[in-house]
Amino acid sequence: MRSNVARRQPETKPASSPASRPYRIEEQVGYLLRRAHQRASSIFQVTIGDPNITPTQYSSMVKLHEYTELSQNHLGRLVGMDKATMQGVVRRLKERRLVDSRPHPGDARRTLLSLTTEGQRLITKLLVNGPAVSRETLKPLTNQEQRQLLELLSKII
Amino acid sequence: MRSNVARRQPETKPASSPASRPYRIEEQVGYLLRRAHQRASSIFQVTIGDPNITPTQYSSMVKLHEYTELSQNHLGRLVGMDKATMQGVVRRLKERRLVDSRPHPGDARRTLLSLTTEGQRLITKLLVNGPAVSRETLKPLTNQEQRQLLELLSKII
DNA sequence: TGGGCATCGTACGTACACGAACGATATGGG
DNA sequence: CCCATATCGTTCGTGTACGTACGATGCCCA
Questions:
Q1: Number of structural domains, chain B?
Q2: Which of A37, A85, B110, B130 is 20 to 30 A from A72 in CA distance terms?
Q3: What's the Cα-to-Cα distance from B49 to each of B54, B95, B99, B107, rounded to whole Å?
Q4: Which protein residue's Cα is closest to nucleotide C20 at C1'?
């Protein structure tokens, strides 16, 4: 198609705006968010202080540290995770004895989650490194740009 | 709440900067990037025009559309994906007959990938919707903010 | 008070994402 | 020419992430 070598400027004129730029995957938000998230995760992994704790496990433990006790569903909503995803995260935390559970007294459908003593100890330790993770991730930006980025990301969630 | 109901201000004084704000998970880049990426992915899924094509499959096909033929490793570098991840993406695209492969003439280690005719047809169709995905994802922002966000994300990758 | 509807947690399937290890091949230096 | 080293693609294991379906339970209201 096109003619001999194919490439550059595929025949999609977006037709939307007249003077629209060519469509480059590297300039699309979704692509940039995926790459940025990749980088942030890898910085987290080497900076947080325990290579076996993942970002989602960390957020879950931080929330449990704040609230003391939460149902699995409620925790999932607080950290922005699907209940199906939450299930796996909680299972792994329980297997490692960082989280414990007991049935909800008044609602037999729910399970109340809380940190074990070891979980408390670990999250207290990891929280010290939390700021360093963000600092390292945002390093390429000036202070003002850092604030801007956080604000813009908040707006599109 | 503020006082007796269990928390706020856990006892971690970050100790780094004197006047540092309390550490809230919702204000950390990594967390915001995860949430933003989630939202972008779900917008992609309902907007791109084929629910069976994922964002990474899409980027891979766009690159193959641009370059005509690429080794698996090279493609992975272009779209920012690990070679192990690439393996699965390519396998699924081949299973659906959207991508084909042939051995590299001069290097027996490599496999050259290209779009099949059906792959060409599909990506040409999906590319029409590409801009709409980004537009929808960036909808909460003004034009200037949109440009800012893209620039800031590029900087931290 | 009972039936319909929502919510909670679980299970299964699919797809990313990456580290680690591996075999095959390529390449450069001695 | 041969070996050390690097690259290419594969496989395995672990951990998100979400849709869908399911059973159990709770709750509202007719």
A1: 1
A2: A37
A3: 11, 20, 19, 37
A4: B84
